[in-house]
Amino acid sequence: MIRLARVVLLVVSGAVGAAAQDTIHLRDPGPGGAPAPLLQALASSYIVIPPAGTRALLARDSTYARTVIVLGRDAVVEGAVRGDVIVIGGDLYMHPGGDISGRAVAIGGGVYESTAGRVGGGVQANREFTYEIARIAGGWSLTYEELEAPPEEPLIQGTYGLRLPTYDRSDGLSLAIAPSFTPPRTRIRIEPRITYRSQLGRLDPSLVIADSLDRRTALQLSVGRSTLTNDAWIWTDLVNSLAAIWRGDDSRNYFRATRADLTLGRRWKSRTTTLTPYIGGRLERARSVRPALDAASEPWSFIGRHDIDDMLRPNPPIDPGTTGSMLAGFELQWTQSDIIARLRVDEELGAFNEDCESCDLQQGRNFAQTTVDGGIAFPTFGTQRLRFDAHAVVTSHGATPLQRWAYVGGSGSIPTLDMLSRGGDQLAYLDARYEIPIDRVALPLAGPPVVTLREILGGAALGRFPSLAQATGVRLSGGFLYVEWLIDPVARHAHVSYGISIAR
C-alpha cells in the first residue's frame, strides 16, 4: 500500500512538473481591479493547466502545493490546493471535498460553490471580460478581451421588471412587466412576462427560459402570445413609438400570433470580429389584427389620429393558420480601426397549414425565406464618413403565407413613397449616406451640425425581383434633430421631413 502511494505521488508530481514548464505572459491586463489576483499569481510560483476540449479536474485525494491557473476551459475542484485557483475563459465548480486555501477566481466565467467544499480566501467572478489566449514559445500569452454583457431592457424609475413601453396604431400603449430570475448555482435565466395592450384590451403572457451552457453557448426557449411584425428593421421601437404618438407615422405592419421558438446559439469573438451563429425551430399560430378598413377607433396621436394613412392605416390581412419552421442564421460584427460593419442573415424553412373549412389540411404550403440585414460605415476625408445600410428578403417560389411578406415605403425607408405601399415576398433596399460634419460650427450640447447627401433605392414585389424606386437629396442634422429634402428623379415627387434622428 505504501509502495502504491509512492507511485501515485510520483505520477502527480511528474504531471505538475510538466505543467509548470509553461509560463504565462500577460500582454494586456485590462482595466479595474479584476486582474489583481492574476497579477499576484504571476508574480509567484504557479501551475498552468492548458486549454483543452474537456473540463480540468483537480482530482480527489490530490494536493497542489501552488496556485493553479486553468486556461480556456471549465475547472472542477475535488482535491486540495495550497493557493489560489484561477480559471480564465471558463467556470469554476467546487465539488464536495474540494479545499482551496486561497481564492477561487473566474475571469470570463462564474464560480459555483459547494456546501461540502471550502474556499479559504473568498470567491471572485468576473463575467464582463476575459483574455484572448494564444500559444507562444515556452507558454501562453493573455490579452485583455471585453465581453458583451447580456442585453438588458431599460427599466423605468428603477422599478424592477417594468420594461420600456412601446406605442403603435395596432396595440396602442404596450406595458410589459418581465422580472428575471436565476435559480441559485445555475446559469438558467427565467423571465416570465405579461404585456398589457391598451387598444386591444388584452393581456399577453409569455415566458423565456435561457440556459448558458457555457460562456459562449446558450439554449433559449421563448413561448407566448404577442403582436408581431416583419418591419422592425426600418425603425427601432423607440423611434417608431415617438413617430406614432407625434404624427401618426407607424412604419410597421402587424399580425397577432402565439409563437414558440427554440434556438441554440454560440458566439466566437476576437479583437475585431464577433460571430454568433444559431439553429432552432418555430411553431406559430397566427391571425390578422386591427386596424381593418372599417376601424372605428384609433390610438391617440398629436397629428394624424383620424387619418386613414396614419393611425387608421389598415394592416394587410394575413393567412390565418399554423406554421412549423426550421431556423438558422448568424450575426457578424466587424470593427477595424474606424471601420464598422454588421451583417445578420436569418433563414426559415417553413410549412404552413391554413385554417379554413374547405382547405385540405394534409397539404401544407412549403416555403423558404432568407432575410439579410447589414451595414458598413467608414471614414473618407477628415471627419467625413460614408455609410451604407441594406435590407433584403428572398423567398422561394411557392405559396408564401401573407404574414411572411415584407414592406417598404414611407418615413424610415423611402420617404417619397406612401407608407409601406410596396409589399411582397421579395424585397431589396439600399440606403447610402455621405456625412459631412461642419466642424467650424459647434451647437450647444449637440456638437457640429452634419450635412448628409443621401441616395435610396428600394422596392418589394411578389415572386420576382422588385422594380426599384429612387429617392435622392440632402439632410441637415444637429444632435438628434434633422430636416431632410428628397426627390424621386423619375416621378419628380419631392418630400420634406423633419424629426428625431437615431441610427437603427
Short description:
7% of the residues lie in helices and 49% in strands. With 504 residues, it is mainly beta.
Average pLDDT score: 88
* Estimated share of beta-strand residues: over 45%
Percentage of residues in helical conformation: under 10%
Instruction: Kindly report how far apart the N and C termini lie.
Output: 71 Å
Q: How many H/I helices?
A: 3
Q: Which parts are unreliable, with pLDDT below 50 for 5 consecutive residues or more?
A: 1-20, 149-159
Largest sheet data: 17 strands, antiparallel
Q: What is the radius of gyration computed over CA atoms, rounded to a whole number of angstroms?
A: 28 Å
Shape, principal axes of CA atoms: globular
Summarize the structure in words:
- With 504 residues, this protein is mainly beta.
- Among the domains are: 16-146, no CATH class; 151-254 and 289-315, no CATH class.
- It is 7% helix and 49% strand.
- It has three helices and 35 strands.
- It has helices at 2-20, 36-42, 237-247, and strands at residues 23-28, 46-49, 56-58, 63-64, 67-71, 75-77, 80-81, 85-88, 92-94, 99-100, 104-107, 111-112, 118-119, 123-126, 129-136, 139-146, 166-168, 172-177, 188-197, 202-212, 217-228, 255-266, 268-269, 273-287, 321-336, 339-354, 365-379, 385-395, 406-408, 422-424, 426-437, 450-461, 469-478, 481-488, 493-500.
- The chain has a 17-stranded antiparallel beta sheet that branches.
